[in-house]
Amino acid sequence: MEKLKPITIMGANASGKTGLAIRIAKEIGGEIISADSKQIFTKIGAGTAKPRGEWKKSEQGEKTYYVENIPYHFLDITDPLVTYDVGTYVRDAKKKMSEIQARGHVPIIAGGTGMYIQSFWNGLDKLPPANAEIRAELNLIATEKGRAALHAALETIDPETAKKIPVNNVQRVIRAIEISRLAGRPASKVWSGKFFSSLPVKEGKFIFLKWAKEQLQERIKERTLNNFDAWEKEIRQLLQEGYPQDCPGLRSLGYPEMIDYINGTHSKHDTVQLIVNVSMSYAKRQNTWFNRYKNIERYEFEQAEEYNLNLLSDKILAS
Description:
By secondary structure, the protein is an alpha/beta fold. It folds into three domains: about 5-125 and about 200-210 and about 295-319, 3-Layer(aba) Sandwich (Rossmann fold), CATH 3.40.50; about 130-190, Histone, subunit A, CATH 1.10.20; about 215-285, Orthogonal Bundle (Helix Hairpins), CATH 1.10.287. The protein has twelve helices and eight strands. The chain has an eight-stranded mixed beta sheet. β3 (about 55) and β4 (about 65) form a beta hairpin. α1 packs across α12 (about 310-319) and α4 (about 130-145) packs across α7 (about 170-185). It is globular and about 50 Å long. The model has no long low-confidence stretch (mean pLDDT about 95).
C-alpha cells in the first residue's frame, strides 16, 4: 500500500465500518474521517451508533475527538438544529484530509452516507442554493398529498431524474424539483453526470462491507435493543431542552419512531420492529448505492463469524 494513500470504508448501517476503521488506524497510524451525516450532531449518539470517545487536545493543540486513542473527525461537530449539507462536508473533509496527510498519517474515511463519499471523491456540480420558500411548499405537498404526489410532480418536469430517485427519498426529490425550478430547466440537464462516476481507485483504496440480509437484520435488531433505553433518555432530554421534534437531528434514522414511542403511539416491541424495518429499507438503498462501484474491494459476510477484525484488517492492508 502506498504511503498516505487514503482508505475509504463503506457499507450499510451496522455493517462494522467503525470497528474496522479503528483496527486499521491502530495498525498503520491513521486518523478517521467520518462519512456519516447523522453522527455529526452533538447530543445525538445512541440512535446513530456514534462511537464513544472523548474530546481532548491533539499534539497540534487542537480540540479533537478521540475513539480508543484514534483521532476521529466529524463526530459531534454541529447542533441538532443545524443543517450540515454535503457541500460543506466536502469542503471541510478535504481540508481535514490534507492536514492528516501533512502530519504523515493515513486518512481513513468511514461511513455509510453514499452522497458524502461520492461527492468527496468526484466533486459537486455548481447548483442553485437552497430556497426556503420552495422547500416549504414541497414539504407541504409531501405531508398533505403524500410522497407519491411529490414524486409525480418531479416526473412531470424531469422524468429522467424521477426514474433515478425512489419515491420515498423525499429530500432528493425536493432538491431535484428545486434545482429544476431555479435553473429554469430539468435538473438532469444541469447535472454534469460526474456525480455518477466510479470511484477513483488510483487515488485511494476503497472497501465495501456487505452482509447477507438475514445477518444484517439481526445486527440491526441487536443494536436497536442494546441502545433502546439510552436512545429514549437521549430524546427525552433533547425535547426537554426545547428541540423541535422535526429538527434536522431528530429526523435521523429511527428517531421519528422513537419519538412516537415516547408519545405513546407504539409499544416498545412494535417500536423496535419499526426501527428495524426502516433501517433495513435504508440499508437496501445503501447497498444499492455501493453495489454500483464495480472496481472496488468487496468483502461479503454470510455468517457472523466471518467478520474477524484482525484477519479482515490484515487482508485489506496486504491487498
